[in-house]
């Protein structure tokens, strides 16, 4: 993985979170994980590591590949720190998000981060 690519991606993610509504274009990842967008793969490679867990809604094979690329560990939706929702997921499968971790005003870091394509 190109270190500079993930550094640029991290800066863009921070900028997007700092300025909600601002549209930023991410580079494409050199790694393809169909059906995920290349940019989603790049965000995973930038933010996921061995310290966090993730879940992928509706795509089991993709989850195994993300683990190989990031070193992160796959978990159940209710335990995952990051939840990836591919664009191929139907609305019935999104209902699983009701059990996702929720933070509160004192501990917002206890909530899951969602990646919607």
Explain what this protein looks like in three dimensions.
This protein is of the alpha/beta class. The protein contains 4 helices and 4 strands. Strands 2-1-3-4 form a 4-stranded parallel β-sheet. Helix 1 (3-18) crosses helix 2. The protein starts with a helix and ends with a strand.
Fold blueprint:
Blueprint: H1 3-18, H2 38-47, E1 53-56, H3 60-70, E2 73-74, E3 82-85, H4 91-94, E4 113-116
Helix pairs in contact: 1-2
Number of strands: 4
User: What Rg is obtained from the alpha carbons, in whole angstroms?
Assistant: 14 Å
User: Unreliable runs, pLDDT <50, ≥5 residues?
Assistant: none
Adjacency order of strands in the biggest sheet: 2-1-3-4
Sheet with the most strands, sense and barrel status: 4 strands, parallel
- Straight-line distance between termini: 22 Å
Summarize model confidence as the mean pLDDT.
Answer: 89
Structural shape: globular
Give the assembly state of these chains: single chain
| Beta-strand share of residues | 5-15%
What is the string of SSEs from the N terminus onward? HHEHEEHE
Count helical runs. Answer: 4
Fraction in helix: 25-40%
Coarse structural class: alpha/beta
Keywords:
four-stranded parallel β-sheet, 117 residues, single chain, alpha/beta
Produce a short descriptive summary.
The chain is α/β, with parallel strands linked by helices and 117 residues long. It is 35% helix and 12% strand.
């Amino acid at each position: 993985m190109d270190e500079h690519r993930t550094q640029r991606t991290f800066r863009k993610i921070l900028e997007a979170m700092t300025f909600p509504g601002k549209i930023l274009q991410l580079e494409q990842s050199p790694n393809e994980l169909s059906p995920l967008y290349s940019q989603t793969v790049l965000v995973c490679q930038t933010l996921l590591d061995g310290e966090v867990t993730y879940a992928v809604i509706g795509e089991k094979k993709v989850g195994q590949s993300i683990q190989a690329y990031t070193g992160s560990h796959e978990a159940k939706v209710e335990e995952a720190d990051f939840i990836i929702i591919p664009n191929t997921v139907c609305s019935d499968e999104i209902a699983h998000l009701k059990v996702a971790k929720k933070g509160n005003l004192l501990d917002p870091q206890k909530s899951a981060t969602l990646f919607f394509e």
